[in-house]
Amino acid sequence: MKTVRLLPAAALAGLAFLTVWPALAAVPTTNFKFSFGPASPAAGSTQILPTTAYTKELGYGFESGTVPVAVGDHALGAKAPFYFSVAEPEGNYKVTVTFGSDQAPSDNTVKAELRRLMLEKIHTDAGQSVTRSFIVNVRLPQYPGGVVRLKAPRETTNEARAWDDKLTLEFNRDDAGSAVQSVAIEKVDVPTLYILGDSTVCDQSGEGFNSWGQMLTRWFGTGLAIANHAESGETLASSIGEKRFAKVYSILKPGDFVIMQFAHNDMKNNAPGALDKYKSDYVNVIAEIRAHGATPILVAAMERSNGANQDTLKGYPAAALETAAAQKAASIDLHSMSQVFYRALGADVKKAFQDGVTHHNNYGSYELSQMIVMGLKAAKLDLVKYISSDFKDYDPAHPDPMATFKMAVSAGGRNTPRPLGDESTFGPGAGAATPDAPAPAADKPAAP
User: Fold this and answer.
1) In angstroms, rounded to a whole number, what is the distance separating the alpha carbons of residues 93 and 80?
2) What CATH topology corresponds to 28-189?
3) Angle formed at CA 330 by CA 325 and CA 335, multiple of 5 degrees
4) Is the pLDDT of residue 255 over 50?
5) How far is CA 129 from CA 74, 98, 111, 126, 351, in A?
6) How many CB atoms lie within 10 A of CB 235?
7) pLDDT digit string (tens) for 313-323?
8) CATH topology for 190-404?
9) Domain residue ranges of the chain, discontinuous segments joined by +
């Protein structure tokens, strides 16, 4: 008869520790410090040189495209946008960047992920350094029990940066070249403002299309994250069906906010009762958001370029406001504010649009984003305490001058698919999708 030998309790405990240890070791590193330039890195920092290319094995480095060069001993920069990525799990991250060179002045603009504006026109004189911080949201399509049905290849290829497992920073320039000394990344737990909507709200991949959702990040400090889950071609019903709302619900926590704008595609539904279905869908969404302890915010969609004095959206903006009022939910009347804005532009109204009809350019979306902030302030929501200190109250009747507006232009993307939507069905007077006049001036990427 074979003898069975039992291990003592201490040995069993040791085996249990060995069993758990690999799982502990697999916890990813989320906090990083990087020193840019040829000089010896600061203590506790990883040195980044122009040759530091991103690989999955390394987990950080520059993406393909423009390669920055040394700007003195303690900075890297370029006269064209360049991209630096760090592998990070889903979550919110505080990014702190120090700009400046000991040799030359610099002008810096930073965008994150898919052209989300974080900082603009940060100037340093030669020998000067400036440090700024902002919050970046990283997300994946998966959630417990499901996955967002992404549009292929639009979201899986052209817009992959919005959904991948990397935090990507776009370092751009304004008048002078850029100069980046250091980057620190720290995972943080802060309230999140989630955005859901269509192509007039989403992160557009290609210049010069843009949306207020991409610009809104510019106006908030480090106390709030903004996560843009809007997508081109969406309606309220399709966003529910494609699990975009389910994804947000899965990560929504008390103290968060959800801002929603739908109308431009919803109004094309000519089925009987379509508008009533739109309202009832909003009622259900509002209830679900509140069940998670978060705050819903409904936005009455902005008009098209021919809508300065008429409603081309078949009553959908008014329906959003009516539903919000009936449910005692916060709302923003961007529809009315955009009409005031368009009337102020007069004959130049189409210059605020990339296609002359529906989809805005950098200038138009920059202005609309300030209207959204004013709407949040008017609604007296708690998140207004996170508005950036340099935001100045905005009046759409007196917009920023087009002639002096400048925005650093992102690399690539000009050959990416245009936003989804059939311009030929946009209603009477919409006309062709080509602007009558060129858009406002913008910095063009120069050769590195």
Assistant:
1) 25
2) Jelly Rolls (2.60.120)
3) 80
4) yes
5) 11, 7, 19, 8, 36
6) 22
7) 999 999 999 99
8) Rossmann fold (3.40.50)
9) 28-189, 190-404
